[in-house]
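Annex B. Sample input.
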Amino acid sequence: MTPSPLPHYQALERTGQHMVAAAQQGHWAEVTRLEGVALKQVEALRRAGTQPPTTPHEREARLNALKALLRLDAQVRRLAEPGWALMEAWLTPSRSGQVGAYLADTQGKH
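Annex B, continued. Sample output.
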């Protein structure tokens, strides 16, 4: 029987939490170092030959860890590239169905 992948996912989640903390403090060299740690953790997960979770509890825990990783990654990206938040606001459809503020601001100005 192969080992559970959950410890690997949990380790990745902890690394992601540290990355967010470093990004919030503007410690970009630490974020870069932790990104390397995360890559090694992903490689270790692949090499471990772990089986997919089999119990409902394991599946839920894995899904929760993956969701957390995505949220943490998004947080780091927003901190690293604040301009993307503005771009996202421009491209997000408004209630009237128009595409965000950018198109509303540029209509008829061509």
